Amino acid sequence: MKFALNAAAQNVRLGRHRNSWEHIQDTPCEVPVGQWVRLEVKLEGPDIEIFVNDRSVLKYEDGENGLLAGMIGLRQFQAKARYRNLWVKTNNEKHFLAFRSDGTFAGEVSEMWRPIRTGDASGEWKLDGDSPFVGC
Questions:
Q1: Of 17, 41, 121, 132, which has the most beta carbons under 10 Å away?
Q2: How many separate domains does the chain show?
Q3: Which residues form the domain of 8?
Q4: For the domain that residue 17 is a member of, what is the CATH number?
């Protein structure tokens, strides 16, 4: 599932990404600009509830299409965004996800990615906190 906040349209978008994009619905909600926005997504089996700044804005039942386990990822689409305080809660235990390398990799690499080298290739990885690429 994909959840996106759109400040220009003042909505939250729900969609599915399984080797293709499927738009499910847009729901109007206030998305402030220039301030932190708290986004919370609760997944309980096929039931999805999205909160924006502690207000429930979207409920959706994904039926037999529901993804009951897996991974998460962050992505902004042609917009600037910053993230902080990201965590996942399973079995009543919070797991905080880091945005900086823990030093076990050669160079700076987001914890969401892994550096790969093959053969005698050489390279450098660096996190760009000033002007990250946000488009295509």
A1: 41
A2: 2
A3: 1-63
A4: 2.60.120.560
Instruction: Strands of 7-127 (E only): list them.
Output: 11-17, 21-28, 39-44, 47-52, 55-61, 87-90, 93-96
Q: Does residue 74 form part of some domain?
A: no
Low-confidence residues in the chain, pLDDT < 50? 101-102, 104-105
With respect to residue 70, please indicate whether it lies within any of the assigned structural domains.
no
Specify the pLDDT at position 50. 94
Using an 8 Å Cβ cutoff, are 16 and 31 in contact?
Answer: no
Residue type, 6: N
Look at residue 3 and tell me if it is in a domain: yes
**Among 111, 112, 103, 110, CA closest to 129:** 110
How far is residue 73 CA from its own chain's centroid? 5
Say if residue 91 is exposed, middle or buried (CB neighbours under 10 Å; 0-12, 13-18, 19+).
Answer: exposed
**Model confidence over 1-10: pLDDT tens digits?**
888 899 999 9
Residue 6 maps to a domain: yes
Q: What is the pLDDT of residues 73-95, one digit of tens each?
A: 777 777 777 888 888 888 889 98
